[in-house]
Design goal:
heterotrimer, A mainly alpha (about 180), B mainly alpha (about 210), C alpha+beta (about 200), B: about 210 residues, mainly alpha, 11 helices, C: about 200 residues, 3-stranded antiparallel beta sheet
Chain lengths: ~180, ~210, ~200
Amino acid sequence: MTDDAADVRRVLSGDVDAYAALVDRYYEQCARYAVRMLGNRDDAEDALQATFLRAYRALGKYQERDKFSAWLYRILVNQCRSLAARRSQRERVFVREEALLLNATDERASPGWSGEDEEFVQRVLSELDPLLREAFLLKYIEELSYEEMSALTGVGVSALKMRVKRASDRLRERWERIKHD
Amino acid sequence: MSGHGIRRGIATLVTLAVIAPTLSAQGNDPLAKLDSASRRVVQALIDSAKTEGLPDQPLVSKAQEGVSKHAAGPLIARVVRTVFLSLREARAVLGERANRDELTAGAAALQAGIPATAIIDLRQAGHGKSITVPLVVMADLVSRGVPRDTASRAILQLWMQGAGEADLMGLSQSVGQDILSGAAPADALLSRARKVPIRLPPAKVPE
Amino acid sequence: MTESDLAPRDPDIEWIAREAKRPVALSTGLRARIMDAVRATPLPARPRRGLGWLVSPRPLALSPLGTSLLAAGLVGIGVLVGLAVTHDGESPAAPVPTVASATTHQDAPSVLVHEFVLQAPNAAHVSLVGDFNGWNAAATPMTRTDDGKWIVKVPLPAGRHVYAFEVDGAGGTKFMPDPDGLRAPDDGFGPSSVVLVGQGSST
């Protein structure tokens, strides 16, 4: 049995602390997705909290033959979508300070790293249409297969491939323009 | 009873364990038992801490705690990273002149969910004294189930009114006992807090 | 055209993806707040299906490499599952370290002797572990008194120290915080205690 399934069983038999183990296992991946998708810390925190609460309440519906990560991500992706919809009016700008706050230590980080690159990437990601951004993140950050993405989002594989391609084209365009500025 | 007393005295001397860190270090690497990937992450965090002027010893200790408790490498790396980020946040909140105990206590308080604003208020409450004790007491109360806002407000108020460090630590103790005896955590804190003596002269008590 | 490659082939896109894969840090108190909210929620309802859900599917677990990569935040969920291997049984416990760390003192703090006490009449053995001895159970064994108390006196620099007791009893070895001590928040390794050596004087 996977650790996930074992922990789910424990929670369902009354051991709430076992849920902390589940949260710990997926917290950072989910946090990263939420930040890249929503573009700012506050919204990402709200989305994370809502996701883990919702997942907790729905644990009885999780079926062990499914991958827990996929099941959890379905909730996360939906939470990010509804949060973005609620907050679409105010477009938050991702600033350098956010990048510095957000960047945790990465052993590959060079001494001269100042957050500019990550800030730039977050900016261009935030400029993408949300559906394109979502597809791009799931493919290249979460590294899911198109089949997994389709099961997660409910969108067909060919539509997803199209979105990923469009997202890549737009990002490349932005990058070319920046390079020549 | 003198014979018994002497035996106790000798036993006490014998159990005086000498912890000389430089002696027992023997040049061994405290991170040696970690798997290489986790070890790289932890080492990078320690290096970053040193670069940023944050205490790195708490990170080493945290890794050792994890190893000793047979935690998996990746979990250890995650926990050490959380401690690092908490220390960074604690420094941002407490300022450059925070001493090391304030930083570690502040980091623990933040991790327990005490809001940064409460810590800033504590710092600004004055007296110029180290706020390590109220920070530790806040974290203790929250760990026992007192709601975060209740704990931070009560301790802040007591601190502003000049409650002594011993009084605050005694407060934690008695609240802990009350909770074990079945009292609701918030109630236990509020009723014990009322009994903490105020040591500032009346003129200095803020409105 | 296969989409089996996980990495984008375009170097610009690859660079963007690499930057976007960097781990992020949200408020450190968020995890605590999430668990608080979870604890305030009623337990989730168990499924009402028949016994089907009790049957375990094919066992899968993340390989050690997989879990390391997850911790380092370097890969996505999809890759992790690809790295999953079948195994039965738990991964072996890491061996206990044998030395304390070298502490770096900024100034020379005063050293005081502090006595640690644990009431554990049924324990076969108790050790004190903490940040002053590298959490090494072999470093500071405690001595049992006639009335079932375990004690040890330790010279410690004044200030904040985190510690716990390692107790060998009938049920095996376990770590426990000091029932009479201040609590340190549990950050993933279970509860520990805090002592402020040299503090405790009133204003």
